[in-house]
Amino acid sequence: MRTERQAVIVGGGPAGLAAAIQLYQQGVKDLLILEREHFLGGILRQCIHDGFGLTRFGETLSGPEYAHRFIQQVEDLGIEFITDCTVLDISHDRVVTAVSKAHGMIQVKAGAVILSMGCRERTRGALSIPGTRPSGVYNAGVAQSYINLQNIMVGKEVVILGSGDIGMIMARRLTLEGAHVQGVFEVQPYPSGLPRNIEQCLNDYNIPLHLSHTVVDIKGRERLEGVTVAQCDEQLKPIPGTEEYYPCDTLILSVGLIPENELSLAAGVELDPRTKGAYVDEYYQTNVEGVFAAGNVLHVHDLVDFVSLEAEALGNAAAEYLKVGTLPPCPLEVKAGQEVGHVIPQRVSGTRDFTLSLRVRHPLRDCAVVVRQNGKELLRKKMRKALPAEMIQMKLLGEKLSSTGDLEVCVE
Asked: Which domains does the chain have, with CATH numbers?
């Protein structure tokens, strides 16, 4: 199967669906969504808890309900999609190669390629936790899939490493299913997830959160028998003599997410070492012309509503690119300064409005996020508190920008 399309969307999760709908509404109707799972919707299908949609729809929805609204629109508009389809390669000249059970080998020459592959979980191997390799050690998303999609209970006595949002949500989910969650252990001196999940998923169920702790050993042959936990110092190193053994049959890992960018690299996309996603300009275009990125493949979001809104902005920009054949240059860099972990976008034109997204490196109180250009303060946002778990967004007006001089974002 060889064909040409105006745009190919790689990934049928919340970012891909929102981008496809926005492209269609902007008059780009020759679209194709490629999704490796059997259904559209991405990770939202297994996120049966509520809390989605407050920003995007003004009401609280479960993950499947949120995804269904976009899936229904895609189907109503007649946007073509192929599921059970694995994308193998994206070339620098936007030829997408994929394989599908229904269609065999597929090669599509795209006017624009939308990268919306989402992210993956960091594994035990990435952490180099010593010990044996028994069954009973799961990433949080895998355990969530077993319970919510396959109705398979993963264990009864549970320890959770990492205070990411999925891990805390799984602490509550496992408790509701009758398991005993002994505690959530976080190597950092502050939680990794949202404050609302600490309250609703841990405190409401009397599940303890132990900061500055990590797992230093795993015991068990066929099945996990227990883990050893130790306190950590300021350099996040285990402190000898503080070890404590916890008998358990299940260890859940919620230790961070990484943008899924192997296909991006194949296309020649340059990655930001801070976000692990692409360098993009204010149009969400990468360094490869006609290749755009949004959602968790670009940078890990805290709320899916922001994923959808970002992808819709990408859809508008990609539609403009397809109609005109090019986009204005973006020569100005946006640099992450003091206490700022990363910024999106990393390049701007200096002539138009754009939304700046960022995260701070550490929890801060009574601070201000400041954007400067050529020593001049363009915007200051005062905050009572700023947390690494919460993405900060700021609107910068093009009329305040100069056409020369990089921008710096810092926290004071």
From this structure: 1-120+257-327 (3.50.50.60), 123-255 (3.50.50.60), 329-412 (2.60.40)
